[in-house]
Amino acid sequence: MPLFICGTPIGNLEDISLRVLRLLKEADVIAAEDTRHTKKLLSHFDITTPLVSYHEHSGAGKVAKILELLKQNKAIALVSDAGMPLISDPGEELIRACVERDIEIIAAPGPTAAVTALVLSGLNTGRFIFEGFLPRDAKKRAAILSSHIDEERTAIFYEAPHHLKETLRHMLDILGDRQVALARELTKKFEEVRRGSISELLADPNEPKGEHVIILSGVRGLKQKLEQAWQELDLDAHMAIYLEQGLDKKAAMKAVAKDRGVSKSEIYAQAVRCNQRQEVGCHVL
Q1: Distance in angstroms (rounded) separating the CA atoms of residues 112 and 6
Q2: How much of the chain is in helix, strand and coil states, percent to nearest 5?
Q3: Is the dihedral of CA 222, 224, 230, 235 positive or negative?
């Protein structure tokens, strides 16, 4: 029998799928991150399938036990406390062991806090990167955040309430005052999504409650603002900035084009049109 990876609700129990309910009922054993937590879910849906614990501190022996059950043709359903297993939750070692032994793995998708927060954030959802929890080691944390200095994709982080403001301060120090969304209690009665700049959200005097998803904007929005600011400057003044630095006209025109987010040929064409109309501030060529 295969190993079934089953996504469970992140809050609202109505988000569980009919397929996951069936698999949990039909499984011979459910491998759960916290059996006490999963018992509450099973009890709500009148499911009596036996449970075994499988969490981040489970050693090789527990993996071997689950593999033995699979070899005995037992159907095993893997669940975490909430959401999709393996997404900042245990399961990688078990899945890797199944792959190495050619044991079939089937995923029954469910909700994830990361994607739920992303679509509520109001930030760019076209391209994103998931970082999960940042390491507590200061150097490692700074290295990961520094890798986002030129990152255009929206970034998703998880953070505990007692570390949230510290993490936001580190983001502000390393990445500048970007737009963020802070989401908590997703799909629950007191769901909350706060949006704004990092500095604005840090100014909130209230102490954070509950685990948060941090949605951090990429640099694309910042680049667009810079491009707009440059475009509001006339070509002569913009060119003068680079000519004064010692660049020749060709190199300066290339730099101006990059600032404005257009091709060098477009800058040249603008200069030609400007000169033809004999407008003030048109001496680029």
Answers
A1: 12
A2: 45, 20, 40
A3: positive
CA separation (Å) from 64 to 53, 94, 96? 13, 9, 12
Backbone region of residue 178 per phi and psi (left: phi > 0; alpha: psi in -120 to 50; beta: other values): beta
Element (H, E) at 79: strand 76-79
User: CATH number of the domain at 114-218, please?
Assistant: 3.30.950.10
Domain 3-111 is classified in which CATH homologous superfamily?
Answer: Tetrapyrrole methylase, N-terminal domain (3.40.1010.10)
Other residues' Cβ atoms within 10 Å of the Cβ of residue 178: 19
pLDDT by residue for the chain (285 residues), tens only, comes to 899 999 999 999 999 999 999 999 999 999 999 999 999 999 999 999 999 999 877 778 889 999 999 999 999 999 999 999 999 888 999 999 999 999 999 999 999 999 999 999 999 999 999 999 999 999 999 999 999 988 989 999 999 999 999 999 999 999 999 999 999 999 999 999 999 999 999 999 999 999 999 999 998 655 566 666 676 777 878 877 777 777 887 787 888 888 877 887 887 777 767 666 555 545 555
Domain ranges (residues) in the chain: 3-111, 114-218, 223-276
**Residue 223 region, left (φ>0) first, then alpha (ψ -120 to 50), else beta?**
alpha
Q: What radius of gyration do the chain's Cα atoms show?
A: 26
Q: What's the CA gap between 130 and 262, in Å, rounded?
A: 30
